[in-house]
Amino acid sequence: MDSATLFKLIIELISAIAKLLWPIIALVIILIFQKDIAALLTRIRKGKLFGQEVELDPSVDKFRKIVEEAQSEIPESTVIEEKYEKESEGLDRDVKEILEAAKVNPELGIIRLSSILEREIRVLAGSLGYLKYRVQIPITQLFRIMVEKGFLPKHTSDSLKIFWDIRNQIVHGKKTEDDRIIIKFLDIGLDLLRTVRSIPHEINVVHQSGVDLYSDKDCKNKLEGVKGLILETTSSDKSVIFKRIFPTTNSSYYQKGKRVTWEWNLSNIWEKTWYIDPDDGQTKEAWHSSGEFAGRYMEDI
Question: Among 129, 136, 158, 273, which residue has the least CB neighbours within 10 Å?
Fold first, then answer.
């Protein structure tokens, strides 16, 4: 056997061994870099993967463009940083939960994301006063109300409609063999979640419940069957925090530090009322006239 033939046989042997070993090598790489591969979900941006353009489904590509436009619609706020560290942590926790589900199956990540988006729409509606007292409104009806009232900017509402359309296609109908399209859709959906959470709205948190109320400014005639509820309110642009008091017949429900919806029971009305501020001990006018505050905890809606 001449040297040329021998060399050719050696090359073919090496190639055959490489083909046999490659699946084992690939498995080892996946096991070693499992966390890094999972983190890929957060690094796919602008339709590129490892610097190369990814061929996206046209509807997903349209979704990306509209979400980018929606992000530009949300005004910047003067955020009181220390006050919103917990909210930021909450968003990070939601994103982590979605990505953990997506590691098991990208479709599970989309289902979890859609559930969290629905919750955020309810939270937004509750903060703006568009939940009905003691009535559970279907998310489709709630979404329509928010659009009609103009609280969802155009591109944000368009983005949400497209999200649910594609979500239903992926989960219930149209399938794709390319998981990169699903992952990209999920990644864009996370941007949409951040956008929805950035829509300006007041935030009301229980500061003090069970405050005694009086029908006279000398605070001698205590009102029976009703207590004052002091809320700490953060303005929609997150720049100002102030306190205000409202009447409630259910003061035992409210716990300090809990975020509540903006809901009212207008079948109960109280005229001019006073109270002693528990923070500074000063006698103050509570209101000229007020219906009963009936807000619920955000997790109860």
Answer: 136
